[in-house]
Amino acid sequence: MKLLRLTLPAACLVLAACGSDNDDPMPTTMPDEDMQMVEDPAPVDPDPADPVDPVDPTPTTIELMITATNLTYAQPLSPIAVALHQEGQFWQVGEPASNALEVLAEGGDNSDLLALGVVQSKASATAPLPPGQKTQLTLTHDSLDGQKLSLISMMVNTNDGFTGLNALDVSAMTVGQAMTFTTHAYDAGTEANTEAQGTIPGPADGGTGFSADREALNKVAMHPGVVGMDDGLTTSVLTSSHKFDNPLMTVTITRTK
Amino acid sequence: MKTRIIPLITGILLASGTASAASLDVKITNLTQGIYFTPLLVSAHTSDAMLFQAGDKASEALQAMAEGGSLAGLSEILTGINANTMENPAGGLLGPVASTMTSLETDAGNDRLSIVAMMLPTNDGFVGLNSWPIPTTPGTYHIYLNAYDAGTEANNELVVDGSGAPNTPGIPASPGAAPGTQGSGVTETESNTLVHIHRGNLGDDDSTGGKSDLHNTVHRWLNPVAKVTVTVK
């Protein structure tokens, strides 16, 4: 993948653009076709009789590079959080949102989710990701054994909409391997989608983010989309420009070490 | 001389395991309820070329396709890079829930499949498949496609004759249900000028007036908007 960018052949220059992401769903060529278990560089059987190396052996470091592109027209995405974990999920459709998820989905603050006990490695972007832009994050850990990757971000011009990747198995990724996914829109089910002034934290409104109150539904679901004042919701601060459709992001995960 | 060199190179590529020639059947189904596809471009090309990329600016050739359905620019580029291309397999518009089928013989190295067509009625919306790696294993493969916005024209949703030319605002045609008239325009600006996922048509329920010339009960869609079935023989 990287190679393509470096070689940048002439054909690329005349065509639209070069890059390595394929943002179309490719169910038939899911990258795991090529996936093989990584043989951990097995430490040589330690023989107690051998003299001990005075310098600690460098611990094996796994590095994953995550590139995310915001595919929406006008929904900035709150600072993207990525995490490695062996247990748990940031969300489950049909289940009530955790408090940490509610904080992210209503206000874009990912710190509670990243502070969860199950998180073993984490990274967060420092700023929201504007429409059309991409960002890159790096995760490091000492082993990929049993590791799952989650990524999450709020669509900030919504009441409690978020998008991400949910506990994706990355344990078998080999060095150099890249996997590309697209993400869908979810509704945390914690705040009614009133779109009313003062309820949306993004630039469309500048309203309140997190509020501990829960809407009656109180279950995570796929997002129904926004309505907006142009579509007859007279009390909405959103316009037709804030509408979105799936997918919301393209995410490429590359194991670099 | 030349004629001798070319087969020689091809022979080397094959021997070194580079993707070899393939024979494909490609079936494309419009999954929408009220959107038409302009003539489709189906092309197998090398992995270093792309017709479009979400998050990047549209080329002029892509813009011409997305705003007016013209395949001339993209086709010329594809010819220049020795792609294997089939234009307009449906022989015109591909209507809602209609399918078309075509065959493609690909040369060695042309191991990526791309498909584009403008969506009508939209300002600069298109259905797209970007550089799908053609499997080497014979079989039948299914791919679902999304609707993109080229980011080159404000989505005013006004049907205007002759507006298919780049930089002329408006939707050039609305096949099927007769569009509304005298809309005031949904917007005059395009804040995201990069290729992105289309946010969808707005439309309205006012056939003479309102903001949009489109109908909010007819001209909407959700992704995916097309299904592609590729049979590798």
UniProtKB/TrEMBL annotation, chain A:
Residues 18-49 are annotated as: Disordered. Residues 1-16 form the signal peptide. InterPro entries: Spondin_N (IPR009465), Spondin_N_sf (IPR038678). Keywords: Signal. NCBIfam families: NF038123_dom. This is Uncharacterized protein.
UniProtKB/TrEMBL annotation, chain B:
Residues 163-187 are annotated as: Disordered. Residues 1-21 form the signal peptide. InterPro entries: Spondin_N, Spondin_N_sf. Coiled coil: none annotated. Residues 36-154 form the Spondin domain. This is Spondin domain-containing protein. Residues 170-180 have a biased composition (Low complexity). It comes from the Bacteria. Pfam families: Spond_N (PF06468). Keywords: Signal.
